[in-house]
């Protein structure tokens, strides 16, 4: 499972970097056509919006996998040892529940958009493909939550110290 996580980490990092690079180029092109050519490109604003959606959701998935997401650590900082690890498992279970909501709700939205045949105004891209980022990020967050639950339960059973667990 560790090898699979590393592979997903690497692929997701590359995908986020590529999306960010395309977004930067798109915005540069928009600025160039608007202010230098005085003829703004018709598709760049919409493309930037769609890329930002994908970047935010996939980047958030990556952050969740690396445990770099925002967290309120008031309670975990007051706990130690086994209780802290148990709380971490509860938090990961909540992450898994959130991921399931993203998967189910996102899949319903994708299906509805594809069923209705709605397309974007400028790019004429089916909106279902844009919203596909929701269930995909749900799958990724769910995978990471299951991974962290699996590791956390192994550490609890093995009685790993806080110092060893925090090196994750």
TrEMBL record:
Annotated protein name in UniProt: TRAP transporter small permease
A Pfam family reported for this protein in Swiss-Prot or TrEMBL: DctQ
Presence of keyword Cell cycle: no
GO BP: C4-dicarboxylate transport
Coiled-coil region: none
Origin species: Rhodothermus marinus
Record GO terms (molecular function): transmembrane transporter activity
Similarity remark: Belongs to the TRAP transporter small permease family.
Subcellular location: Cell inner membrane
